[in-house]
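check these tokens.
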Amino acid sequence: MQLDARLYHLRTQDGAEVDCLVELENGYIAFEIKMAEKIRPADAWHLRKLADILDKPLLHGFIISNDTETACIADDITAVNAAYFLG
């Protein structure tokens, strides 16, 4: 199956940045990469701001880091260990 997707790096004029934004037909999936050993809810602030600027819905956001815990930061944002995420 072929998936029609476009990849972007997003940086706004006010300094908000998302490392990888994947555009799909019905919305976006966002990835924020952190070197942190522990993810805090504040680490998701750039992902939370996306709904205000995107032309399609944010389907899900991921924070990928060195944190060994997988955690639901919000209904549409998940923090995942990098090694676990990569399988």
